[in-house]
Amino acid sequence: TNPAFKEVLSRIESHEDCRNLPMISFLILPMQRVTRLPLLMDTICQKTPKDSAKYENCKQALKEVSKVHSRVIPVKEGCTCTSQVGDEGLKCDFLALQPFPLVSSSRWLVKRGELTAYVEDTGLFSKRTSKQQVYFFLFNDVLIITKKK
């Protein structure tokens, strides 16, 4: 609600070092890394020869990374962007037309933004391409494309 904070945040997000990413993407990134570490370690273990001395170290590292992962996931799921998802859901008119459980403990917002969509309109004797501005919400398991009113 603080206009000065919003102005500073918008200036920071538009800085070239941030690559126009919203603040939420920087808050989610560490959690995404933690969830990917066990997959990475498992792949490394699979590629390491079983008779190698490094194989046991790799297995131990996988075990430790999995422990951290199992402690972080419940916290992450409890702190997903549920309130933000709920806020976005209130703004979407399609929810009134077709029920969709947008708010979920296992769903979080990954990225949102405005895009230009090119739409082909094929008539009987003509083919026309038009541009439309659309707003998208990319969640971890669903992509929602909307038009702004």
Automatic annotation (TrEMBL):
Ranges for domain DH: 1-75
Pfam families: RhoGEF
Cross-referenced PROSITE patterns: DH_2
Gene3D superfamilies: Dbl homology (DH) domain, Pleckstrin-homology domain (PH domain)/Phosphotyrosine-binding domain (PTB)
Cited SUPFAM superfamilies: DBL homology domain (DH-domain), PH domain-like
Gene Ontology terms for molecular function: guanyl-nucleotide exchange factor activity
InterPro entries, alphabetized: DBL_dom_sf, DH_dom, Ephexin-like, PH-like_dom_sf
Name of protein: ARHGQ factor
Species per Swiss-Prot/TrEMBL record: Ptilonorhynchus violaceus (Satin bowerbird)
